[in-house]
Each structure stands twice: as C-alpha cells, then as structure tokens.
Amino acid sequence: SQIGTVRYGNLERLNYFRKEEFEVDWVKVAERTFGCVYKVKLKLKQEKCAIKTLSSRDYRSMLRVSEIAKAKLKYLVSIYGLCKDPPAVVMEYMNRGSLNNLLPTHVLTWPKKFQMVHEVTRGMDFLHSMKPHLLHLNLKPANILLDDRLHVKLSDFGLITWEETSGKMTFIEHLAARGNISYIPPEAFTQNPEPPTAKYDVYSFSIVMWEILTQNRPYQGVNMTEILIRVTSGKRPGVEKIPDDKPPECEEMLAIMQQCWHQESSQRPAFSDMVWKIEALSDVLKLPDMISGRETKKSLRCKPPLPALSRGVSSSPSIYSYLKRKDFETFKHVVTK
Ligand code: ATP
Ligand code: MG
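That is the input. Now the predicted structure with magnesium ion docked in place:
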C-alpha cells in the first residue's frame, strides 16, 4: 500500500506518527472501556487509516508487537504471492544473492560477520515468536539472502514441513537430498525421531554461525554417512577454524554457538534468549562509519574472484551463473570505485 511504501520503506527504527499528520476530522468508529477506534485520513497521500487509542499497558504490549512487525519487514524476504502455472512463489528479489555465494568469494570484516549473525537471529526470533510459531527447518546459507548493503533476510521458511514425506522418502532423506545434511541436529537422525521443535532451527543456526565466522564449509570432503556418524557421536565443526584476528567479543559469540549445537536439544537456547545478547556483541564492534551506511565498501576486501561453488542439489544452474556474473560486476565496482 501507499502507506507501506511511504511510511515503512526504510524502517531503521519504529515509525511514530504525530497527531498533526492526520486530517482533523476523526470519525469515531467504536468506543470501548479503555479507548476508541477512529477512522482518520493521513494528510500525505490522503490514505485512510484506523487509529485505536490504548491504555498505557496496552501501549507497552503494542510496542513489542511493532518491534515484531519491524523485524518482519527487515529480516524476512517478502512473499508477494503464488503462481499456479507454473507452480511458483513470487517474492522480493534480493540483489546480492545468498550467503552461500558470498562467503567463499569475499572477505567479511568482523563487524559485518557479527551483524549478519545478529540479523539472522532477529529473523529467526520473529518466526519463532509467531503464534503458532513457524519453524524454518531449512535454515542454511542458501536461504539467507542479501540486499545491496549486505543486510540479510531469511527466505524459504515454512517450505519444509514434518509431514512432507514425498513417496518413500522420510523427512531426513528429503532434507539430505536437498543438500541439508550439515544442518540437521543429531536427535533427528534417530530411528523414530520426534517431530522437530524450535531447537531444530537453533542447531541449524549454530552451523550457519560457524560458517559466517569462519567463512569455511562444514565437514568439507566428508561424505553424508560419515557426517551422520560424527554428528550423532557429538562431533561438530572445528572451532580452530576461526581466524586468529578475532576480536575479544568473539569468545562470547563462540560460547553461544556451542550452546546452540548442544547434543541435548533442551540445552540449546531459544532465539528470544540470544537475540539481545548477540545484538549487544554486534553493537560493540560496529564502527562509526558503519552506522552512516557506507559499510559495503568498508567491509568487503578483495579475495581473488573464486567461482561461487554451489551447495546443495536443488539450486538452479541458471540462477547461479547469473549471480556469479552479477556478483563479479558488483565486486569490481566495490574495488574500483
Ligand atoms: P531450498 O529449496 O532448500 O531453499 P536452495 O536455497 O539451495 O534450496 P533455491 O531456494 O532454489 O535453492 O535458491 C537457489 C539460489 O537462488 C539461492 O542460493 C540464491 O542465490 C538465489 N535466490 C533464491 N531466492 C532469491 C531471491 N528472492 N532473490 C535473489 N536470489 C535468490
Ligand atoms: Mg532456498
């Protein structure tokens, strides 16, 4: 809607309206014990809105809800709709492709890495705080997309469901065929696994976190059976792969990561418990010029342009080759500007 574009286009912070921004003729629609609902018109664009006055307690609750709405706009890829023929989902186009392409081809600075981890946590916290909560079950770098400034948004959430066992394939076989084996928690590998819980996503997140912090691939060169055996016996990607130039705040980040890949799902923290801790760690590293929005140039340094190797089996080759070329163009732009 017009309001959506005008008012919420760039939501760095929650938007506050002033009374003067509305036309003076407020039409009362309903009256309740704690307040009223009015039909009003925004002066700008003459957009019709409803204003509902609140008690201070309700106002505080709405503050929390608005934070959630903000997270939805900022950290999740918008779905515009569906297409019946061919069956397809129509969604927001993310200019810089996915983390899957970016991690092997660019060197990210520590503030950028922390910021990405934080943004993923915000998106996941949003999904898990929905009622009923929405499990992602497909969290991996290919589903973490990037905008021009390398801010991340999650995609393909809710695509995979526990019930989805096409034909003879089990849930796990289906995920393995998608190339998701590294993101599956140990409890899902058992004979008769319980349906996945929010802690499934927390485990996948820990592996993603390791990939962002190390810019490496987990279990490289290890076959699927061996990965399954290792993970079941409690092994995880090596923390020694974290680059030596890490800031002191990284220790706390690693502690969170290790808690998230705990063998016992009940010992893994919820996203709502981590989100503010990770935000605080990310804020400490933020450089003054990152806030001014020039971070893209600052946080990317040049590595020889490696081909972006595709992960997983379901990726479309045409999209990949397009993104590689596009990525390279942007990349040239970054270093020559
Ligand atoms: P899955 O079906 O399990 O999510 P996947 O993420 O590996 O598998 P796709 O979802 O088909 O495969 O995405 C393949 C690639 O296409 C992504 O890695 C990304 O680079 C690109 N891509 C996907 N969605 C978008 C989008 N909305 N905007 C820009 N690029 C996208
Ligand atoms: Mg995807």
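The two ends are 36 Å apart (CA to CA).
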